[in-house]
Amino acid sequence: MKTIIMLCSYATPEFNIVNLKCEAAKWVLVLPVETYGLMPIATQGYFDEIIPLKELTLASVTHAIRPFLSSSEVILLPNKEDILLLAAQVRQELGLFGDQVDYVERFTDKTLMKKRLQSTSVDCAKYVDYSSNDFASLEDAIGFIEERLPNYPVFYKPCDGFGAMKSGLLLNQSELRQWLIDCDHQRYLIEEFLQGTMYHCDSVIFEGKTLIECVCEYAWPCDQFLSGRPIGSIILAPDNPVYNRIISVNAAVIEAMAPKNCATHMEIFHTPDDRLVFVEIAARAAGGRIVDLYRRQYTVDFAQMHLQCQLGIKPDVEIKCDSDYYAWAFLPVQAGVVDAFNIPKFSSYWNIDWYIKPGDVFDAEYLDSHTGALFVKENIAGLVVIHNPSYLELLADFNVIRHHQFVNYIEKG
To answer: How far is CA 39 from CA 34, 239, 381, 387, in A?
Structure first.
């Protein structure tokens, strides 16, 4: 009998494992103690055994899994991007079948992605792969970067980061110089700053074939969340002029990157000069509320299809379009004391789940302490979901969400 071990980080499983049980198997959940404390009782019942750990490290996870090796075949499935590499390292350490380190790095290291796409038709932003260890002096680093990226602003992000963490914009040489002085020894991607509209394209790949592709438009690029702008997306209508172009780029990226049985999540910019510029692709289901958006819009579950593919089960993809169109957004927490909520007038049906309340205080120290994972409840003021049978009315309301100040804050007295 197989033992299927789910490795979770900051979020608990969001699906019914009963739907994945196609054969006799023991289901085990390994997760941090803090995450276990947030886990609904009903979800706990899906598992035959739960192992809470003080922290997730190669040593702790390997130690927790090793006892299962003597009696069964073990399959290890991580649930979030931040532990994909850890899961691969555990597989390598224990000789387990599944995605190995070099494969996972292909979909988590942004420099490796760009290098793999160099000989294709896919348009990528110009970039520099930077580490302070590569240069003898600060002036050498500045000269190297400006030779390859002569125009400001430039954008920086960790090569292996996720969720726009530790990313930002540098407007001139002075800001670049200060950032290089303050920069840690992590490897960063510094690239030309892209302007325009950002989209995501989500697919499911099984045995080399693409089973489904869906495209959405972001409210703002993800890095804007810490600047006070909402992160969210709206279904992109297939008759939109850019829809088929994005699908074509996605196909070229998938051919070059060669994802195995999995879901994929690609992000791309449409610039004012009509370029479609690749940003990155992940071999996993999307984050935020994107999976829930597709559940509502098309009655398909990308998270579950990803796990089915990882288990060697071909998902049965049957798209059933809802009569309404959908959009969602996370509203960011901002500095100050929550005074009141300011809800705009929508044409669409709407719902807001608030995670904060009047009187709550969010100072700079609080905001700085919750930048490890951006899209967790500590950073989110509320979740907005809207739907409408009219796509144009939905899009108009989505544009309101992009720019509206939903929460009034006052200074701490």
So the answer is: 9, 41, 21, 29
Beta sheet of 209-218, edge-to-edge order: 123-124, 276-282, 262-270, 197-206, 209-218, 231-235, 325-332, 380-388, 349-354
Q: What is the pLDDT of residue 287?
A: 87
In the CATH scheme, what is the homologous superfamily, with its name and number, of domain 198-320? ATP-grasp fold, B domain (3.30.470.20)
Taking Cα atoms as reference points, which of 186, 184, 117, 126 lies closest to residue 158? 186
Residues of the chain with CATH 3.90.1170: 323-413
Tell me the C-alpha distance between 307 and 338, whole Å: 40
**Lookup: tokens for 329:** 């957004």
Mean pLDDT, 10 residues at a time, the chain of 413 residues? 88 64 80 87 85 96 95 88 93 94 93 93 94 90 95 90 76 95 86 95 96 97 88 93 97 96 96 96 92 95 92 91 95 94 97 96 74 69 97 97 96 79
**Which architecture characterizes domain 323-413 according to CATH?**
Alpha-Beta Complex (3.90)
- In 8-158, the DSSP E strands lie at 25-32, 49-53, 74-78, 123-124, 127-130, 154-158
Closest CA to 327 of 270, 393, 279: 393
pTM value is 0.91
> What are the residue ranges of helices labelled H in 225-310?
243-257, 290-298, 302-310
Residues 6+ positions from 85 with CB-CB distance below 8 Å: 101, 104, 105, 108, 160
**Token reading at 361:** 């205080």
Structure tokens at 363: 């100072």
Residue 312 CA to residue 92 CA, distance in Å, equals 20
Mind listing the pLDDT tens digit for each residue in 370-403? 555 566 778 899 999 999 999 999 999 999 999 9
Q: Which residue has the tokens 């998902």?
A: 315
Q: At residue 186, what are phi and psi to the nearest 5 degrees?
A: -70, 155
CATH entry 3.30.1490.20 includes domain 126-192? yes
Return left, alpha or beta for 181; rule: phi > 0 is left, psi -120 to 50 is alpha, else beta.
alpha
CB 349, CB 300: distance < 8 Å: no
Which residue from 295, 404, 258 is spatially nearest to 345, judged by alpha carbons?
404
**pLDDT for the residue numbered 360:** 94
Q: 389 preceded by cis ω (within 30°)?
A: no
Long-range contacts of 94-103 (CB under 8 A, 24+ apart): 94/62, 94/65, 94/66, 94/69, 97/73, 98/310, 99/260, 99/283, 103/260, 103/283
Residues 379, 370: Cα–Cα separation, whole Å? 7
